[in-house]
Design a protein that fits this description.
Strand content: 15-25%
Number of domains: 2
Radius of gyration: 20 Å
CATH topology of the largest domain: Dihydrodipicolinate Reductase, domain 2
Bound molecules: NADP nicotinamide-adenine-dinucleotide phosphate
Strand order of the largest sheet: 3-2-1-4-5-6
Shape: globular
Order of helices and strands: EHEHHEEHEHHEHEHHEEEEHHEHEEH
Distance between the termini: 13 Å
Largest sheet: 6 strands, parallel
Number of strands: 14
Oligomer: single chain
CATH architecture of the largest domain: 2-Layer Sandwich
Helix content: 25-40%
CATH superfamily of the largest domain: Dihydrodipicolinate Reductase, domain 2
Structural class: alpha/beta
Length: 360
């Protein structure tokens, strides 16, 4: 297959570095340019990141030699795809310019996630939402497009809730999180504040979890997506863990749960929607089992489970599935890698899907 050319917008940040690492090794993509803010523009990538590269692998040789550009379609090379890892406030202005200039933007930012004509994609759960791209291109007169990936915290919840929603219906969910420091980017939370501590507030996070899951699990209709209608209440906290968000969900169901083994079985057998399974063999970043179920009483754990999956870091691990207070409730724990499945890995998989569906 001919490679697709791509640019990475905000290639110097936590997510941008992961994108550089993943895309430079990926056979379907050719990185033709990288960009960041004016504080980095004009510098060689290797020089800019000599003290700030945070991954155990080395900076890829060719990318290290590239000069960082300003993040503007007039400054960077033309390409099929723009991977966006910008702060949301910047993405809101910059990414539409790239879409108008013909790039297929795969965005990590929250700016456009809840727009009615913008897909909020988890391919295994809602690949049919990419039909919104046609509506988007008509609405906005773009030759390119914007697709968004969910917040890193939303991803794990969405995987856990989807099979239960399909099988038992959901009335409401109470969600709690213990989130890794890498989720707050570079430089992130100061060590003095986070060591030996839990910070019980992450700005905007609870609102994102509570709204995004409903769009992701929503139904694609001819005019757009009709959101799922259950309610979610969440508490999001930051903890001194490098990578991997640990989350719990207490789920009240519409239908009676006769046997808790039925819930475990629907989680274990979930591989994706029929639409997703039709294209799965074309996707190298899709793990064989997007949900890994652990029966041990002390799992999942961030250190043991964040790299779960046949594609490391791309599966959500679920454990401690047990009854709630009655036959209409279930309690569970989950673990999802926030900078792989929750960030750069989602973007790479999303772009693979767009190629498989001829959207790029
Ligand atoms: N970290 C995660 O786990 C995670 C997960 C899901 C989603 N996200 C989302 O992904 C995006 C990036 O997050 P991050 O954690 O990678 O942040 P980060 O580590 O703080 O990096 C921010 C990046 O944005 C660039 N930037 C800042 N202002 C800019 C501007 N005016 N023009 C162009 N580039 C600009 C920075 O470039 P300079 O180096 O030049 O300043 C840097 O490359 C955010 O929207 C975030 O909410 C992050």
């Amino acid at each position: 297959m001919k490679k697709k050319s791509c640019v990475i917008l905000a290639a110097t940040g936590t997510v941008g570095q992961r994108l550089v690492d993943m895309l430079s090794k990926h056979p379907s993509f050719d990185i033709v340019d990288i960009s960041a803010s004016k504080r980095s523009a004009g510098l060689k990538y290797r020089d800019r990141l000599k003290d700030e590269w945070h991954l155990p692998s080395e900076i890829p040789e060719e990318i290290g030699e590239m000069t960082i550009k300003l993040t503007d379609p007039k400054e960077v090379e033309p390409a099929d795809i723009a991977f966006g890892a910008l702060p949301s406030s910047e993405a809101k202005v910059i990414e539409p310019k790239f879409a108008a200039a013909g790039y297929y933007v795969q965005s990590k930012a929250s700016a456009m996630r809840m727009e009615a004509d913008v897909p909020l994609l988890i391919p295994e759960l809602n690949v049919d939402h990419l039909e919104l791209i046609d509506i988007q291109r008509k609405n906005r007169d773009w030759s390119g497009a914007i697709t968004t990936d969910p917040n890193c915290t939303t991803v794990g919840f969405a995987f856990a809730l989807k099979p239960i929603y399909e099988e038992f219906g959901i009335k409401s969910v109470v969600a709690n999180t213990w989130q890794a420091i890498s989720g707050s980017g570079i430089p992130g939370v100061p060590g003095l504040l986070i060591n030996e501590n839990i910070i019980p507030f992450i700005k905007g996070e609870e609102e994102k979890v509570e709204s995004e899951v409903l769009k992701i699990l929503g139904k694609k209709e001819p005019s757009g997506v009709r959101n799922a209608e259950f309610r979610i209440a969440s508490t999001c906290t930051r903890v001194p863990i490098t990578d991997g968000h640990f989350e719990t969900a207490y789920i009240n169901t519409e239908r009676k749960i006769e046997n808790i083994e039925d819930v475990i079985s629907c989680l274990k057998k979930f591989k994706g929607t029929p639409e997703f399974l039709k294209i799965k063999q074309k996707l190298s970043y899709a793990p064989d089992d997007p949900i890994v179920y652990r029966s041990e009483i002390n799992r999942p754990q961030p250190r043991l489970d964040r790299m779960a999956g046949t594609v490391p870091g791309m599966a959500t691990t679920i454990g401690r599935v047990r009854r709630g207070i009655d036959d209409y409730s279930v309690n569970l724990c989950l673990l999802s890698h926030n900078t792989i499945r929750g960030a750069a890995g989602s973007s790479v998989l999303g772009a693979e899907v767009a190629i498989a569906l001829d959207l790029v």
